[in-house]
Amino acid sequence: MDRWDEMHGVTSAEGPVARIMYASQASIRHSVYQEMEKIRASAVKHNEPAGIATALLHQSGWFVQWKEGPAPALQKVMERVAGDVRHFDLRIVHRSRGPRLLTGPWSMAIVQCNEAPSDMEMRVQQLKQQVDDGQQFSPAAVWRRLSTPMRHPGAMRQQDPDAFQRVLVCGANGMGSFDLVRWLGQQHDMEVVHRRFAGAVELDVGTDYVDFEQEGRVWRVIAMARHGLHLPLTRAFIPDYSHLMLLLSIDPERNAQLMERVLRAYEYLNHPPALIGVASRADMHALPAALARRHGLPYLTAVADSRDPQATWGVVQPLLMHWQQAANSSMLSGSGQMLVGQ
Length: 342
Prior knowledge:
Layout: H1 3-8, E1 17-26, H2 32-46, E2 53-59, E3 62-69, H3 71-82, E4 87-98, E5 106-112, H4 117-132, H5 139-147, E6 164-171, H6 176-188, E7 192-198, E8 205-214, E9 217-224, H7 232-237, E10 243-247, H8 252-265, E11 274-279, H9 286-294, E12 299-303, H10 309-320, H11 323-326, E13 337-339
Parallel strand pairs: 2-5, 6-9, 6-10, 10-11, 11-12, 12-13
Antiparallel strand pairs: 1-3, 1-4, 2-3, 5-7, 7-8, 8-9
Helix pairs in contact: 4-5, 6-10, 8-9
C-alpha cells in the first residue's frame, strides 16, 4: 500500500468522505497540459496534507474535476477553486458522501476527440438537469457521462448493465493493446479516442479506447499502458470492466511484472474483473495463471499471436461473451482455454 493510502484510509478505515464534482469552461489559451501540470503542483502542495484527492479532466474546451476528502477541507478548496481565472461557468454535477474511490492525491487526464465545445456543454447541461431533478449517479458514472462523446454508440446507455461492456487491455511488452484498439476502430469505422493520464508525480501515460456495437451490445475496449494501472484514476474505474486482457510476452519476467501491476491495482476489490491471458504458446500461461490462482482470481487462457489484432480478437471475443458471469463477480473460477481454430 502507498504511504498516501495508509495516511488517508483508502481501505475505508477512515469512514465516509465528502465527494464533489463540477464542470467548467476552460479559459486557457496556451498549452493545456502545461497549465494542468501547474494545477497539479499546487494541488499536491496544498490539498494532499488535508487529505483531498483530485481527478481533473480536460476535454473539448471543458474541465471536469472530481474531489474527495474531509468536508471542511473540501469546502475551503472549493472556495479557492471558484475564484480561479483559468475557468468560468462552474456547474456542480455531483455531491455525495461515501468511501474514497480515488486512491491517491492526484490524477489528471486530457482527452483528444473530434467533439466541439458546444457538444460537451450540451452533455453537461443534460446531466445537471437530471441531477437537479433528483436523479442520482455515482462519481464514476458522472465522469463517464461527461467524458463520452454523445455520438458514440451507447453514450446514453452506459448505466444499463445489459447494454454496455467495458474491457481493459494491457500488454507485457510493446504496443499490442493500442494496435488492437486501432484495428477495432478500423473494422467498425469508429473513432479512436486518445487520452493521456498522469498521477501526482508520475510522467503521463497513454490510453486509447474505441466504442462499437456488436452482438447486440455496446463494447468499449480500452488500451492502457501497463505502468498506468496504478494511477488513482485507473484504479477508480477497474470495477467497471468485465475483463482485463493481458497480452503476454515471450519473456516470463515481463509477464511477472505485468501481473504484479495487476495484483496491486486489484487490491481491495471485492469482485475484480476476470483475467484473460493471450499468448502464442500454451506454456506461457503457467506463471500468470499460477499467480492468479494464488490470489483467488479467475484466469482464462487464449492461445494466439498477441501481436496480431485480428487473431487476438477472434480468440478472445468468445470468452468475452460470457461477461455476465465474469463481470465483477466471483462466479467464474479456475481457468478455461480457447485455441485458435476451435
